[in-house]
Amino acid sequence: MFGQGLLKGLGITFQRLRRPTETQLYPYQQPVLPATSRMFLAMYHDEAGVPACKACMTCQTGCPDHVIRIEKDTENPKVPLSFTVNSGRCTFCGICVELCPFSALHFTGDFERATYLKSDLIYKLVDGSRATGEGEGERHGR
Amino acid sequence: MVTFNRADACAGTETVLLNIGPQHPSTHGVTHILVELSGETVVAAKPILGYLHRGIEKLAEYRTWQQDLVYTDRLDYVSQIGNEWAYCRAVERLTAIEVPERAEWIRTLFCELNRITSHIMWYAGVTMDIGTMGTPFIYAFKARERIYDFFEAVTGARMMYNYFRFGGVRCDVAPGLLEDIHDYLGGEFLELMDDLDALLLGNEIVQSRMKGIGAFTTAQLVEWGITGPFLRASGLAQDLRKDAPYGAYDKVEFAVPTSTVSDSFARCEVRMAEMREAASICRQVIERMPEGDISVKVPRLLKPEAGEVYVRTESPRGELGIYLVSDGGPKPYRFRVRSPIFYNISALPKMLPGWKLQDALVIFGGIDTSMGEIDR
Ligand code: SF4
Ligand code: SF4
Fold first, then answer.
1. Which CATH superfamily is domain B6-374 in?
2. Cα–Cα nearest to B262, from B315, B212, B199, B202
3. In this predicted model, what pLDDT tens digit does every residue of A26-62 receive, in sequence order?
4. CATH class belonging to A34-139
5. Percentage, residues of chain A above pLDDT 70
6. Is the distance from the beta carbon of residue A67 to the nearest atom of ligand 2 less than 6 Å?
7. How far is the CA of A49 from the centre of ligand 2 (A)?
8. What is the chain B residue with the closest CA to A36?
């Protein structure tokens, strides 16, 4: 009979209506992310606050999107003077984390970093600050 | 004396050009189809491509073999794992890297999970195309969200996984998670599939909208270069997972759903059956997955010998091919994608004329487009 399938469909809808809601009320309710989540990058520091990075440049050359820019200390080439990550261009692919021979980089579960300015998405990982100075808003790489 | 005859004036028709898209609610991605209408009937159709062109093939030539892997995810962003696998297989064949047994099984598992999520995306698209205003679409997305949770737990991302590596996969899957996937696909998922079946295939309005619409013969489809479920719905069981097995497909049992009717409704039936088959493959893979290594060591800067390779895989939309040329350097000399949907959508000028506009949308929904792969 024509219409039986329609009634069955309505039945399904009513059945599902009585089930508990599954909607997540973000931002009132924070999602529980798995530990593997690839969100914003951060760098490990030891107790004295010295960054784990040894300025070997592996991540800078390995990044497909020229996101990372490292400046070495000329006197002490194993110390990064600045380590900027242009998160606006980052694809969160994880290649840098994987490549780092000193396991200095890691992903945090932090994803709420919307900004009004693109230049605010550039982070200095060595001291964890945001780069907001003159000329810092320009893109890395080509 | 010349009298004005209203009927004649209408019949001495002028055609109307109608732009479907680039931002039409019942298209998929930024599709743009220019149709010429005579009344309600399509007389000519022309897909206009390029809105999502990111130059991935060219970008790939400026990045190392490993870095290109990141970009393959972004080709067809609805079945990412399938693209990663095609590219990895191509590079592995070029460099003669052996993939460990367990890695092949894990790859098969995630490719099939991805096939389910991709077909759910088609389900959402096609139901919206025929105007269901969201109910079946939201129900289907429940399953997609659950499967993306599994993906996120393993790969760390919900869409751009970057999970495969040359010679294996990036990380192993926790046994508890495998059990979760198995339980979900064997229970709740099948229950949901029954509901989705009833909402789409069992619905008389859908049946009357789809049955007999877009009926093409197998010979026509082969001539137009159509692959995937669209072709299989015409009765030709062409599936590379069976015809040229890769991964663990030759070690699991599965059927290739076909239909002999070859209309839009048959395409729906084939895809719904494929989702169930994919779930069954996943369960078999989890039950029989061997222990062992998940990857082999590959040099950090890969330099394959000069040569070329073409690898075919069965993506949820048809035959996905990757053609690579190496000049012996650290970057590909040429990276070319044979995208299944590009061929399918290119047949629209042959498919759509003669059908009513609303039927044309139904036929178009059966192609299951993903513009990311067409425009690249
Ligand atoms: S996650 Fe990928 S894109 Fe982002 S900085 Fe690391 S390597 Fe570059
Ligand atoms: S790879 Fe690690 S140690 Fe080397 S520069 Fe990058 S973060 Fe520093």
1. Cytochrome-c3 Hydrogenase, chain B (1.10.645.10)
2. B212
3. 888 888 888 888 888 888 887 777 778 888 888 888 8
4. alpha beta
5. 88
6. no
7. 16
8. B156
